[in-house]
């Protein structure tokens, strides 16, 4: 019975990861992140992803702020924020978010405000979905680590 | 952070700069590097400006540009600033190793 809970949680984690890969939410770059995690940096992935969330939310606020301006015309500035978001998203393997950034960038290249607004809505939706799913993954991982640390007393007959 | 961890993983001593201006300042302080991984999109001073500045200072280190852009025009603009090479994000261990192998 030792570690049964941990095994089940490990299976849950793998199922969720497989689902996220299958849906195109994540790509192989996420595996690169996982490979950088080891005993010396056991929380590396969650630390990097949390920094990504923090930075991304700032960039998304900047993008929305720019587009909501009455006399908005600074597509170049918007492009800069977008490029940062795209770069960091691709670096953690956030494939769908990266793809929406690409479409958004195309709209900025054409100074297409309505296209940008549509892309922003989609981007916020994809980002939200990614964040929820990754939080779910990290929660399962935390539970697994706790469960793996539980040991039943050995009975000596 | 990811790139730093990748470099640490392969045993490469490294230092990170928050923006292009800081990268230039680090070099002004007299520090030298075998390789500079230069992000194109940075606040205060972007990668193109920083690369031009470093070259005008006489910095001969290998500078490899890194960006999410894959369009030829964008890459050319960055290369013309003084890059030795260019990598499209995301950086992975294989891309990093190929750059490091060229320096060794």
UniProtKB/TrEMBL annotation, chain A:
It comes from the Eukaryota. Histidine-containing phosphotransfer domain (HPt) contains an active histidine that mediates the phosphotransfer. The keyword Nucleus applies. One of its GO terms (cellular component) is cytosol. Its main location: cytoplasm. One of its GO terms (biological process) is phosphorelay signal transduction system. It comes from Arachis hypogaea. Residues 41-137 form the HPt domain. Gene3D superfamilies: HPT domain (1.20.120.160). This is Histidine-containing phosphotransfer protein. InterPro entries: AHP1-5/YPD1, HPT_dom_sf, Sig_transdc_His_kin_Hpt_dom. Keywords: Acetylation, Cytokinin signaling pathway, Cytoplasm, Nucleus, Two-component regulatory system. It is found in: Cytoplasm, Cytosol; Nucleus. One of its GO terms (molecular function) is histidine phosphotransfer kinase activity. Functions as a two-component phosphorelay mediators between cytokinin sensor histidine kinases and response regulators (B-type ARRs). Plays an important role in propagating cytokinin signal transduction.
Automatic annotation (TrEMBL), chain B:
The modification 4-aspartylphosphate is found at residue 39. PROSITE patterns: RESPONSE_REGULATORY. One of its GO terms (biological process) is phosphorelay signal transduction system. The keyword Phosphoprotein applies. Residues 1-104 form the Response regulatory domain. It comes from the Eukaryota. Pfam families: Response_reg. InterPro entries: CheY-like_superfamily, Sig_transdc_resp-reg_receiver, ST_Response_Regulator. Keywords: Phosphoprotein. This is Response regulatory domain-containing protein. It comes from Arachis hypogaea.
């Amino acid at each position: 019975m030792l570690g049964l809970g941990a095994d089940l949680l490990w299976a849950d984690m793998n199922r969720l990861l497989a689902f996220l890969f299958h849906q195109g939410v994540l790509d192989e770059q996420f595996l690169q992140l996982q490979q950088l995690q080891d005993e010396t940096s056991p929380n590396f992935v969650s630390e990097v992803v949390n920094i990504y969330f923090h930075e991304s939310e700032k960039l998304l606020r900047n993008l929305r702020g720019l587009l909501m301006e009455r006399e908005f015309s600074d597509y170049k500035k918007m492009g800069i924020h977008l490029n940062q978001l795209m770069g960091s998203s691709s670096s953690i393997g956030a494939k769908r978010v990266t793809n929406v950034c690409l479409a958004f960038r195309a709209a900025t290249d054409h100074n297409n405000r309505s296209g940008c607004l549509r892309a922003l809505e989609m981007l916020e939706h994809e980002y939200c979905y990614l964040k929820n799913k990754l939080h779910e993954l990290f929660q399962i991982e935390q539970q697994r680590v706790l469960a793996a640390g539980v040991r039943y007393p050995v009975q000596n007959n | 952070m990811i790139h730093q961890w990748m470099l640490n993983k392969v045993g490469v001593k490294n230092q990170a700069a928050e923006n292009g201006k800081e990268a230039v300042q680090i070099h002004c302080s007299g520090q030298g590097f075998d390789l500079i991984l230069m992000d194109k999109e940075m606040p205060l001073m972007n990668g193109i400006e920083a690369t031009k500045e470093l070259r005008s200072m006489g910095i001969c280190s290998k500078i490899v540009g890194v960006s999410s852009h894959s369009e030829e025009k964008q890459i050319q603009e960055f290369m013309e600033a003084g890059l030795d090479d260019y990598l499209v994000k995301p950086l992975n261990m294989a891309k990093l190793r190929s750059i490091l192998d060229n320096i060794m």
